[in-house]
């Protein structure tokens, strides 16, 4: 009995150790970036973790917000991410609902093909996407950036929602049809409220991918009109004299919106991620 209790405590201790190690692996770099954003350039290179109180400053944030075009880049990032999220949701919801509810020949190979596009290295898509954007005369436009980023998010979003809709009972569709609803009414008034947690997960995924995207923005953007936050971080870190405090401040300001968004939708995200697993058993 004592041996079994000792074994259980040992397993619990090892589990906590693994979780704590993984947490530190992700949290420590973020805490270090936040800490660096409040330090002067000289104190960062002292090699000491703790420095006198006089070396801490808000000057890095003041410079980023007042000297650079950070507000413009922030608005561009929000505008592009919101557009990508709305358009990709409209396309993926209708496509996934059709794949889930209708007997389409080759459905499984089609879903497998959609998902396999996520295994393709994104950097290899740069030249085809650039040529398509140029041929459509969408270079250095918001629509060009949006179309390029939708190529990144749409396949996984559609594959995920198709699996989620499969777990929604078809009897709900049948009951709505008996009540006189057509396909569009069934989707909007019946299926979407039931599948809200899964749709929330898909929306959060597309927003975060678009918000943090650098690959598409770097090839489509030619001016400040379409530049996003990821570009300002790249430009700050590639200057001849790198101001690491300003780079850290820009990084913190870039991360804050996604953290706030996650805090608002956290409950829905957990429901959406766990509902599919439970129903799929």
Automatic annotation (TrEMBL):
Its main location: membrane. It is a multi-pass membrane protein. The keyword Coiled coil does not apply. It comes from the Bacteria. One of its GO terms (biological process) is transmembrane transport. It holds the Pfam family BPD_transp_1. InterPro entries: BP-dep_ABC_trans_perm, MetI-like, MetI-like_sf. GO terms for cellular component: plasma membrane. The chain crosses the membrane at residues 12-35, 80-99, 120-139, 145-166, 187-209, 244-265. PROSITE patterns: ABC_TM1 (PS50928). Residues 74-265 form the ABC transmembrane type-1 domain. Keywords: Cell membrane, Membrane, Transmembrane, Transmembrane helix, Transport. It is found in: Cell membrane. Belongs to the binding-protein-dependent transport system permease family. This is Carbohydrate ABC transporter permease. It comes from Litorilinea aerophila.
């Amino acid at each position: 009995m004592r041996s079994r209790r000792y074994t259980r405590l040992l397993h619990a201790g090892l589990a906590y150790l693994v979780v704590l190690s993984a947490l530190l692996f992700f949290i420590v770099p973020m805490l270090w970036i936040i800490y660096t954003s409040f330090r002067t350039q000289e104190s960062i290179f002292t090699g000491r973790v703790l420095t006198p109180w006089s070396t801490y400053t808000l000057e890095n944030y003041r410079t980023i917000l007042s000297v650079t075009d950070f507000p413009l880049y922030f608005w561009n990032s929000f505008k592009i991410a919101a557009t990508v999220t709305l358009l990709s949701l409209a396309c993926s919801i209708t496509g996934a609902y059709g794949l889930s509810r209708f007997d389409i020949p080759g459905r499984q190979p089609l879903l497998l093909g959609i998902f396999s596009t996520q295994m393709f290295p994104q950097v290899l898509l740069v030249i085809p996407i650039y040529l398509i954007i140029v041929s459509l005369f969408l270079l250095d436009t918001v629509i060009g950036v949006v179309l390029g980023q939708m190529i990144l998010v749409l396949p996984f979003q559609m594959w995920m929602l198709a699996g989620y809709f499969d777990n929604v009972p078809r009897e709900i569709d049948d009951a709505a049809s008996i009540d006189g609803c057509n396909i569009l009414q069934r989707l909007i008034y019946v299926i979407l409220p039931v599948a809200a947690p899964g749709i929330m997960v898909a929306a959060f995924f597309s927003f975060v991918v678009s918000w943090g995207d650098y690959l598409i923005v770097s090839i489509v953007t030619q001016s400040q009109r379409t530049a996003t936050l990821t570009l300002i971080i790249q430009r700050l870190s590639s200057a001849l004299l790198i101001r690491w405090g300003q780079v850290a401040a820009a990084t913190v300001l870039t991360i804050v919106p996604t953290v706030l968004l996650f805090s608002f939708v956290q409950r829905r995200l957990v429901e959406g991620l766990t509902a599919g697993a439970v129903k799929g058993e």
